[in-house]
Specification:
- With 129 residues, the chain is mainly beta.
- It has one helix and eight strands; from the N terminus they run αββββββββ.
- It has one helix spanning 2-14, and strands spanning 22-34, 43-52, 57-61, 65-78, 84-92, 97-104, 110-115, 119-127.
- The N and C termini lie far apart (43 Å).
Length: 129
């Protein structure tokens, strides 16, 4: 009888949809620079950014949708100013490789850095869901 009840519980659980871990952010500012140049002044923007932990994909819905497939988790650390960072290696929709850093400052502000060999950009983010 006990095995029968356990089997029923697993069957019922199999029909309950599993919630995907998708995080939604609004990028409200961005900046960029060439590798050996200076950062440009912050520019206002209004872009949706999604991070899907189930499929390891980050989407940035700018004029041209940017798709980043996470291929390797590099490290998770606290930087010298006390902010938490997670670093990933990715391949984008054009098969270019780069590094992405998600940073949360001690005051709760969040940023996403996207680094390629020749250009870098950063978005200031607000979590919306």
């Amino acid at each position: 009888m006990k095995k029968f009840l356990v089997s029923i519980v697993f069957i019922i659980l199999g029909f309950i949809p599993i919630q995907a871990q998708i995080y939604y952010y609004k990028a409200f500012q961005f900046s960029c620079k060439e590798t050996y140049g200076s950062w440009i002044d912050w520019q206002p923007t209004d872009i949706l950014v999604t991070i899907n932990l189930s499929s390891d994909v980050v989407n940035i819905y700018s004029n041209k949708t940017q798709i980043y497939k996470i291929v390797k988790h590099v490290k998770n650390y606290t930087d010298t100013s006390g902010g938490r960072q997670i670093e990933f290696k990715f391949i984008d929709q054009d098969y270019d490789r780069g590094t992405m850093r998600l940073r949360t400052e001690t005051n709760g502000n969040s940023q996403m850095y996207i680094d390629f060999a020749n250009v870098m950009w950063v978005y200031n983010l607000i979590r919306i869901r």
